[in-house]
Amino acid sequence: MKAVKVGLLGLGTVGGGTLAVLRRNADEISRRAGREIRVAAAAVRDLAKPRDTVDGLKLTADAMQIVDDPGIDIVVELIGGDGVAKQAVLRAIDNRKHVVTANKALIALHGNAIFEKAQQRGVMVAFEAAVAGGIPIIKTLREGLAANRIEELAGIINGTCNYILTRMQESGGDFGEALAAAQQLGYAEADPAFDIDGVDAAHKLTILASIAFGIPLQFERVHVQGITEVAAEDIAFADELGYRIKHLGLARRTAAGIELRVHPALIPKRELLANVGGVMNAILARADALGPSLYYGAGAGAEPTASAVVADLVDVVRAVTTDPENRVPHLAFQPGSLAALPLLAIEQIETAYYLRLKVLNRPGVLAAITRIFGDLGISIDTVLQKGRGQPNQEVTVIMLTQVTQERHMNAATAAIAKLDTVTGDIARIRLEKLS
Amino acid sequence: MKAVKVGLLGLGTVGGGTLAVLRRNADEISRRAGREIRVAAAAVRDLAKPRDTVDGLKLTADAMQIVDDPGIDIVVELIGGDGVAKQAVLRAIDNRKHVVTANKALIALHGNAIFEKAQQRGVMVAFEAAVAGGIPIIKTLREGLAANRIEELAGIINGTCNYILTRMQESGGDFGEALAAAQQLGYAEADPAFDIDGVDAAHKLTILASIAFGIPLQFERVHVQGITEVAAEDIAFADELGYRIKHLGLARRTAAGIELRVHPALIPKRELLANVGGVMNAILARADALGPSLYYGAGAGAEPTASAVVADLVDVVRAVTTDPENRVPHLAFQPGSLAALPLLAIEQIETAYYLRLKVLNRPGVLAAITRIFGDLGISIDTVLQKGRGQPNQEVTVIMLTQVTQERHMNAATAAIAKLDTVTGDIARIRLEKLS
Q1: Element (H, E) at A153
Q2: Among A231, B109, B172, B306, which one has the highest count of C-beta atoms within 10 angstroms of its own C-beta?
Q3: Which of B 256-295 lie inside 8 A of A, CB atoms?
């Protein structure tokens, strides 16, 4: 059968990896797909840059040239961002070309419009590589778990954050030291904000939640919190209490609506997610028929991401002969049948909490605090006082609460902060028992 | 669009679960599939048995009646075994009906012939539920990892064995006690041989290996060993040395050929697989582009298995409009392009070992043993002598070796067993470092 001709937009880390994998495993891939998948052209930023892997490949500096090339069957967008990438993807769809992309920002922010256009034009937009690198989590949720009502997703979906928190855990060092190490190893960008502030994880969570629950992509409704405020002492106290601190993306179906949130959380050490270290990613899914299941693997890197890009290529190659209405829908559910489930504000979510505060060592201090919790209906699980402290000197108190609504916890911490025996800020991290 | 009509062969645990999931999640499933999936008829063993979930369902005691019914689009075979089940599946294919099955024995033993016939007739045979219950591992290997050369699979793929070993680990009890507990909880059959002797795991490994490596199904070439000889003291010694004992299915690509083996193995405690407890299943895949990835979930039970059956139904419903040659191939690779890779005999495999032996406490005993290892090129990692022992009294010695070929270890243990200072049998368990 005729080879499928692919145009690559971008020959950076992932583009180079994709080319390498397609060439190295050409035999296995065409034994699987039933057709050869050939990269015919690539768009690069700098044509003058010397490259060693591009023999036989048509190079251009103009992505639109590939997008408009009638000889190209599938466009692979690996430029990133939502500038040229967005333009190129929309024009490729207009030209009735299938698209494979690794661009999570593009899908999270503009996916609804992109998929609508793709539906009209009868083409596929595949984006497995946009979430959790090479872990086939989109396929799993969309196809593997198709029998289920999915109740919850909890994921370690940003390798940079997970590396930093793992390193803080192992070395006892602080955030700055761990970030510097991550940058030195190439696990964090020179400007790391996108990762450590949680935006990248929120893009991925947006996509996962949409596919799990059959709702439109709604990035702007995700509560986003990064890891910059996680202190070394919180990691140590959590450890002492039997927990690890992980940066989680959480999507949960509740009776009141959908919770979508990205933030650090304590999770019990014995849970598999707590044992996912370094730059690895993992997603725990809870579904009504299957129960809990977990998917673990490399969330970034040239070849792990290429693994997902090429799997999408194989899928597209296979599906080209399918009636468009019988293809796997972009967001798992048929277009037109997405649900308008309410998304909850962060104040409405329910979770347990870890609190760290400094108090003056005086009689009645803990009684005043626990009364505030009691009045708001918040139960306390554990209280830990660190250091003995002379009378009237500062001591650190750690508390673990039971599950409550976040607005009650907001009221409680506001009231506690006003006590004149409480000095300094109150550190607060959500605590999730997942299994 | 017209509803797809399904005929269920078998309304036992999995059949009942499939019916329950299809009904409970009918709305979500048809929002995904784009069509209603309706169970129109079911074959049961005993028509007289009272049932509460079968309103509106045509029941028959004759599976062939469903297989021959022109109103049925897809036959779901949940009878098990390779008697009636095999007959019914082959006849359904002859009648150009698609088939979904959870029958691992049928696929492992007769899959090559079944898929050949399905290919000729242009129908699909889907069998996600045959391996690891609801974990979508077939889809993952076949589609999600399609870019990769898969190097290794290591799986906990029998929940009964994993429950028994987990219980022995936690309670310190012996095999018999743990088996009795598993039987009481319904995790082991009254006749547990199929599970505890490793045959069930070998069926599943046969299927996984074929899909991973693109080789024909070759059940008869799997080295199969169960867990009946794992002693409580081995679990305790392994724990002391930093390992857990798990029952593994292992498929490994080596320069010499493919290793296919099912047996108990020590694995380091910090590995995720070591932390998969109870009846849960997990499969670790190592692939050249993606690296290691792991898939965890329920490996059995009514609804977890139904989750896989129904996912297959959705896949088949979607793929009916696809050109047969563009569908996902049954064994991942296109028919006619399976590879004739050599499968290694168990003597040729390479692994490390845990050994437990009883020796008389005399000078030179260990020297004699280590000389035997040295002569065969086997390096020893750890030696642990349990109990002090009076001169000439029995003491237990535990040894961990480095990786060697099994035939060398066979020669070594044969020679050691002949030493007159070695009393009783030598317990030997393979040791696998997977990550």
Answers
A1: strand A150-156
A2: B306
A3: 270, 272, 275-276, 282, 287-295
